[in-house]
C-alpha cells in the first residue's frame, strides 16, 4: 500500500512506491494498484477516453472498470520506472516511466495527489513521444 500519510513520504519511499506500482502493473494486478487509491478518486487519461468514452473517471469502481477494460485490449504491458518526484507542498507524486503497451513504448508520467492517508484522490496519466 502507501506510506500511510503524506508526512512520512521521503525520496526513498517515493522511489519504492514507484517501483511497487510498476511491479503491480507488470503483474496485471489491478486490485493491488487500486489499493493506492481513495474510494472517491478522480483519474484522467487519454487512454480512458479511448477505452470508456470519457477522459476522466470518477470513483474507485469506475477506475477498476476502466483498467480492466484496458487490460483486455493489451497483450503486453510493461512499465519501467525512470524515477519518481515527490512534491511535499502539493502532496503530489510524479512517477516518470517508459510505458510499453502492446508494441508501442511511450515516455509517460503518472501524477498522483495523495491525501492525508497517503491514498491518491486525484491522478492523471500523461503520455509523451514514442520511444
Characteristic terms for this protein:
131 residues, globular, single chain, alpha+beta, Nuclear Transport Factor 2, Chain: A
Detailed description of the structure:
The protein is of the alpha+beta class and 131 residues long. It is globular, with a radius of gyration of 14 Å.
Quick one: overall form? globular
Provide a count of the helices.
Answer: 4
CATH first level: which class? Alpha Beta
Number-wise, the strands total 6
Largest sheet: 6 strands, mixed
What topology emerges from the helices and strands here?
Blueprint: H1 11-26, H2 30-34, E1 37-44, H3 46-52, E2 56-58, H4 60-72, E3 77-87, E4 92-101, E5 104-114, E6 120-130
Helix pairs in contact: 3-4
Give a quick summary of the entry:
The chain is an alpha+beta fold and 131 residues long. The chain has helices at residues 11-26, 30-34, 46-52, 60-72, and strands at 37-44, 56-58, 77-87, 92-101, 104-114, 120-130.
